[in-house]
Amino acid sequence: MQTLKIAVATAPFQQPIRQAVQTAAGTGAAGIQIDARNELKPTELSDTGRRQFLHMVSEMQLSVVSVTFPLRRPLQEREALDARVAALKQAMEFTYQLKARVLTTRLSDLPDDPDSRDAVTLQEVLEDLSRHANHVGVTLAIASGSHDAAQLSGLIERSSQGPLGIDFDPASAVMGRRDPAQVLRDLHRHVVHFQVRDALRQVDGPGREAPVGRGEVSWEEMLAMIDDMQYGGWLTVRRSEGDDRVGDSARAVTYLKNVALG
Fold this sequence. Notes:
The protein is of the alpha/beta class. The protein has nine helices and ten strands. The strands form two sheets. An eight-stranded parallel beta barrel has the order 1-2-3-4-5-6-7-10, surrounded by four helices. It has a two-stranded antiparallel ribbon with strand order 8-9. The longest helix is centred in the middle third of the chain and has 20 residues. It starts with 5 loop residues before the first strand and ends with a helix.
């Protein structure tokens, strides 16, 4: 099995960014993912500040491997659409400045009718964003969530203006009552980033996040599939729930390494 490139998302630590980087270094990960909306905004760093930040990250023997930008409203919602698109474009530029090459974001429910106004607007926006991503030198990755794989693949494949990919999230598949392995098979050719999250289904609800290795995701199967598809990108541990997110993240890094070693 190929050597895994494991990162951790720092925003869930709920610490000041410099402290969060130090915490990440203690997890055993080799990279970090930064939240450009809630953790470190593009406007908060001057050119000098950015160089100092990257130097600190490097001193911790880490690198910024991806940036995420959570959306507060559906991407295709027409209210404040221009501002939403501008913010994503700024986040792309910030991603490149941090020497990362992938910006992740999450869409709301996809329009059922591909000919509806919302569907057309979404496709036009993604075309615009992928064109800018191509210009900047990054790839926009859409979180797989619980979306229908065929719908999501269609969005990606209809984009002809620049790089557009999938941020695969196995926990969302579990919570959406889908088989993560099958979803990965359906989407693998588009995957450019991989979230390491686990989850448990619930009888009377969508499910809940669980520590990696204690949920329903078969990590032996996931890592074998990643190896088969020759995925060369990063696996980013994101523990967004729980009372010990730092400890759970560190244990997830160790768990993945142990699974990879067999």
